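Journal club prep, shared notes

We agreed each person brings one worked example of a sequence with its structure written out as tokens. Mine is Phytocyanin domain-containing protein. I'm keeping it raw so we can talk through how to read the token line rather than staring at a rendered picture. Sequence first:
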Amino acid sequence: MVNPIKLSLLTAFLFIILLRIPVSAFQYTVNDENGWVVPNVGDVLVYNHWASRNRFQIGDSIRFIYDRDSVLEVSEEEYEECYSLKPFNFSNSGDSVFVLKRPGSYFFISGVSTHCKKGQKIIVKVLSTHINHAPLESPSDSPSSFPTNRTDATPASSPATTKPKSNDAVAINICFALSPLCAVVVSFFFF
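Then the structure, token by token:
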């Protein structure tokens, strides 16, 4: 049996370690300062070009800012058709935020079908693995395709850190996964 004082100290130590784990989520404003508007003639891919310059991860969110329009999250088929009777999500507030909760592709269109047919639609691809949030420069911006510094996304609120469970095995496994220093401290308490 573990000494209650040692267990309390270990719990406090694990809590401090968990607080230090970097958790980051970003909120991207679609099309930056231009917002969610009907693209200029001949620029029907403006939104997908914008999306391709960013690396979206689970937990990030995308924000649509617009006037007299709406945003629908739809299936790929509905995206291609620019029409949906039953979108996954719908918003017409003028300032809509969608949280990216899973890896894969998200399809968004304007709720005004003529706007969508003029190119007011976007595919957002969410990565399944963690990488640096830096957007990529477009080929026209630079000959390099290496990530640049964060400029267009703002940190979103970080999810709350959960307290470690009191189960000794879970605490040890979490600790060993986090850092060698943590493993040394846990070893001191349990062995």
